[in-house]
Amino acid sequence: MKNKSLFTSVAWPAARRPARADILERIDSVIPWNSLAELIEQPPVGPRGGRPSHSRLLLLRVWVLQQLYRVSDEAAECLILDSHSAAAFVGLDPWKPRPPSASAIANFRRMVATSPNGQKIQRRFENAVLRADIELRPGYLVEPVLRKRNGAG
Predict the structure, then answer these.
(1) Other CB atoms within 10 Å distance of the CB of residue 92
(2) Residues whose CB falls within 8 Å of the CB of residue 18, separated by 6 or more in sequence, listed in order
(3) Which residue, among 109, 84, 114, has the nearest Cα to 100 in the 3D structure?
(4) pLDDT in tens, 52-98
(5) Which residues contact 42 (CB under 8 A, 6 or more apart)?
(6) Diameter of the chain measured on Cα atoms
(7) Does the predicted TM-score (pTM) go above 0.85?
(8) How many other C-beta atoms lie within 10 A of the C-beta of residue 67?
(9) Could you give the angle at the alpha carbon of 151 between the alpha carbons of 150 and 153, nearest 5°?
(10) What is the torsion angle, in degrees rounded to the nearest 10, for the CA atoms of residue 97, residue 145, residue 141 and residue 58?
(11) How many C-alpha atoms does 9 have within 13 Å on its Cβ side?
């Protein structure tokens, strides 16, 4: 018999749904994903190595997370690892997320920024949000800074 994890076998009590889950579900429902993905150039195929490559659509969803929460490439990777809602939003298994690396996220973000279609992607994203009558005021995720107190050993 295969051992089950206690964590995944527990029936969790009904609780309030996280605000992040509601926000991401609403954004997901109004963004024309396929239309945006068509504007992204297919990256050239290079030598294989490192983590497996991710789809343009998944990377586009990570880019949207960065637009919503104003997070760095490293923080976007951590957000997907730490947040069940964020992992589900980008299309990964929330229980075993394998997000793109920070360098893959950075490469995609730079490709969108320098692409001839980069401004189109940004405008279509913003217009979809406006048409849905959503006021988008990006938030910031800030991690606490831990320091030793003076005299603490």
Answers:
(1) 20
(2) 84, 85
(3) 109
(4) 678 889 999 999 999 999 999 999 999 999 999 999 999 998 888 78
(5) 56
(6) 58
(7) no
(8) 17
(9) 115
(10) -30
(11) 5
